[in-house]
Structure formats: structure tokens, C-alpha cells
Amino acid sequence: MISIDNFNFNSKKALVRVDFNVPLDKETLTITDDKRIRAALPTIQKILSDNGSAILMSHLGRPKNGPEDKFSLKHIIDRIVDLTGAKVHFANDCIGVEAKELSEKIAPGEILLLENVRFYPEETQGDESFAKQLAMLGDCYVNDAFGTAHRAHASTCQIAQFFPNNRMCGFLMQKEIQSAKAVMEDTKRPFTAIVGGAKVSDKVLIVENLIQKADHIIIGGGMAYTFKKALGGQIGKSLCEDDRLNICLDILKNAKEKGVEIHLPKDSVIANDFNNNANINTVESNNIEDNWMGLDIGPEASKDFSEVILKSKTILWNGPMGVFEMSSFEAGTKSIAEAVAKATSNGAYSLIGGGDSAAAAKKFGVEKAISHVSTGGGALLEYFEGKELPGIRAIEA
Ligand code: AMP
Q1: Where residue 375 falls among pLDDT bands split at 50, 70, 90?
Q2: Cβ contacts of residue 251 below 8 Å, gap of 6+?
Q3: Which pTM does this prediction carry?
Q4: Digit-coded pLDDT (tens) for 35-55
Q5: How far is the CA of 154 from the centre of ligand 1 (A)?
Q6: Are 181 and 149 part of one and the same domain?
Q7: What is the CATH number of the domain that holds 261?
Q8: Helix (H, G, I), strand (E, B) or coil at 218
């Protein structure tokens, strides 16, 4: 497999799949967070400084029936100019005569941004002839869109076949793959996975797969209460999926057989309403009164979980320990964020993935103290569920 580090883009037109699916203000259609564009800069800059040109393709939002102004990538042109300092051309259609002409005309050091690839349903259908038309625009292919690596779409997967000898991962993708492998393949033990968030059903596959790999699994957040109820606890009005009680018991049984320790929160911060100003109390997590709900792990649980985290050499964290968006229920998630940061400074490898835990790491100011905060929510989850990611397979094939 070619590595972007050793590839010389001199005089090449590099077709780069980026993930510029950035949030736009609904009224002004200006970018509210340009993190995804910044994340692709190392790849773009390498191409331009090698004296190549970068042809960028991306999706934005979920257009249903062809072009829609609110999903046009033209709204992000100025930000790309600001961030790269390069001349940026724009093709109003990602394939066809205009795109072809512009791709032939752009000079080394310049960028061509193609219009939203999802304006064609062929993109998400993974249509081969659409992929071929995109492929005609460049002479090498770089995939730097980890966020869509779990989708077998035309520009993320099918297109790679047209570049059998000159396709590669971009720097961002490379970093994401390396950090996921550091956790799942080159694992230093003990390996602790922290899984939280709202629902058991969203995390069953990941927990089942982690039982094969981890030494400890910490379960917090709303999903912990389905486990507590399955074990016979009283959980009041806490989040619960009654149709998953047996799955929780199976998970606990399988973990025991494999020698994996599952840690559930001993105590919880409970409230009489889903509201920052509700009455709150701290009780044992399996003894919550009828009209109360668990909205955060309690101080005992924070202490127990932190002890496990501080003894770990590899840490994966997906999903908050409580409703950390509200200050009354943020303490548990904050203490876990701090423990992960401390373990990392003691030499552990830590990976945080999934939108909400990444947002929590940012909120509690520990982002820089983590080995890697992943940009890929769904893609990262599928990787940890043990699935092969089509976008990566297409490059590595
Ligand atoms: P997820 O997307 O599944 O990782 O869930 C994240 C969401 O779960 C966050 O918005 C949290 O506010 C929410 N959450 C975490 N713990 C609880 C809880 N105990 N009760 C209700 N919601 C929770």
C-alpha cells in the first residue's frame, strides 16, 4: 500500500475525498464549526507543497432529490481560501464538462472544489459509472474522509478501483487507523473500555465485541440502568429498554466467562425531573424511587471507575457517564475525562470517539491530554463493533 508520506504529488492532480460535512448556520449559511476542514489541512498542504493540485470532493448534509442551495459546498469556498491561502476554483457540478475542464486547467498549488457529490443519488448507491466519471478528473486518489469510511459510496469506495497503483489514505485517515489499531491490535494491557450514553441498543454490538478484547468494561450513562434493572434493581424513571434486559444478562454472563470485569455505577445522582434545576439526590443505583431518574453516576462510582482507569495502559471511551450537558449532572463525566487524561499522562494510550464523548473532552478541557480524539463517530463505532470499513478496505485491497 502506498503511504502518503512517501508519495510525490509534483505535477499530479490528486483527487481527494474529504469530509467537509460542516455545520452551517440555518439563516446565513455560514460555517459554525470548521474543525473538519482543519482536519484535512495536512493532506491538502502536502499535495500543494509538493507542487501538485488538489481536487476536493465531499458531501454536505443529506440532500434528497438533487441540488439544494442549503447543501451547496459553495458556502465553504471562502473558508478553504482562508485556511489554505491557495487559489480555489469551484465546479458547480461534481462531474461533467465544467468539472473536467476545470480539472484540466488548474495549476500546481491550486485547489478545485467540486460541488456536493450527494447531489447525485448514484453517490450513496455506490454507482460504478458515477465513480468512473469522478475518477476521470484526477490521476491519483487520496481518501481522507474517515467519517464516511463505513459507507460503500461511489467517492469513498468504488472510485478506488480506478487507481490500482496510486491510491492512498490521507494523513487524517492514517492517524485514525493507527489509533484504532493501537487500541484493538497492539493493545497494551490492562485495556479498559468505557461505554456510556443513552441507549443499550446502540452499544450492544460494541460491548459484545469488546468482551473479546478488553480486560475491563466500564458502563455508565443512561444505558447502565437497563443493566441495573436486569440485575433486579429498582431504577425508578431512569432510562430503560425493557426489551434488552436479557441481552444485558447475556453480556454479563459472557464477560464473566471470558474473565472480563464489567463495572456498573454503584451510586447515581438522581433527579425528580429531566431538568437542571430539578431536586437532586445521591443514592445507590439499584435503589431509585419511583418518580426519580438517574442522570449521572455518583461520587462512589466516579471513584471506582477512576481507579480502574488509572491502572490501565489502553483506554477507549465512547459515550458520556450522564447528562453532562447540564451542570447538575456533569460531575461524573468530568471526573472520568480527568481520569483518562491523568492515565494518559502516566503513559497509557487513550482514544476517545463518538460525538458526545469528544464534546465532553472539549467541555472539560482535557482534549489535548488525550492520545487521540477521533473525528469519526459512526465509522469508529463500526470499527469497534468488529466490522470492516469499506472505505479503508478499498484502499488496502
Ligand atoms: P449517545 O449518543 O448514545 O452516546 O448518548 C449521549 C447522550 O446520552 C447525551 O446527550 C447524554 O445527555 C445522554 N445521557 C447520558 N446519560 C444519561 C442518563 N442517565 N439519562 C438520560 N440521558 C443520558
Answers
A1: confident
A2: 204, 207, 208, 211, 227, 262
A3: 0.92
A4: 899 999 999 999 999 999 999
A5: 34
A6: no
A7: 3.40.50.1260
A8: strand
